[in-house]
Amino acid sequence: QVQVVESGGGLVQAGGSLRLSCAASGSRFSINAMGWYRQAPGKQRELVAIITTEGGTNYADSVKGRFTISRDNAKNTHYLQMNNLKPVDTAVYYCNVDVSRTGYLENFRYWGQGTQVTVSS
C-alpha cells in the first residue's frame, strides 16, 4: 500500500493565501499524474487541478489565475498554492495520486485523508 498524507489547510480571510501539500510514501512505486479535488457541503466532489508526468497542468475554470499546482518529484510530493481565496473556495480538499507499483502492469489511485479549507468574508 501507498500512504498519502495531506497538510496545509486552515482558516483564512478572503484575499488570503494557503499552500496545501500532499506527500506519498511507501515502497516499490512511482507517481504518475497528481491532482487536487474539493467537495463543498451539498455539492459533489470536483476536480480543482491536475499535473501530469510531463508537467502539463489543467485547472477548473473557477480557480484559473488564482491556484497553481506544482510537484517535487524527489520528495514524491505535490502542492496547491491558493492565492486570492474567496468564500466559495471553502471545502474539504483531497489530493489524489496515480501510481505505478513494481510487479503490476496496471496503475493505482490513492486518496489523501482530506484537509479543510475555510475562507471567511
SSE layout and pairings?
Blueprint: E1 3-7, E2 10-13, E3 18-25, E4 29-39, E5 46-51, E6 57-59, E7 67-72, E8 77-82, E9 91-101, E10 107-111, E11 115-120
Parallel strand pairs: 2-11
Antiparallel strand pairs: 1-3, 3-8, 4-5, 4-9, 5-6, 7-8, 9-10, 9-11
What features would you describe in this structure?
The protein is 0% helix and 59% strand. The protein has no helices and 11 strands. The protein has strands at 3-7, 10-13, 18-25, 29-39, 46-51, 57-59, 67-72, 77-82, 91-101, 107-111, 115-120. The strands form 2 sheets. Strands 2, 4, 5, 6, 9, 10 and 11 form a 7-stranded mixed sheet that branches. It has a 4-stranded antiparallel sheet with strand order 1-3-8-7, with no helix packed on it. It is elongated and about 50 Å long.
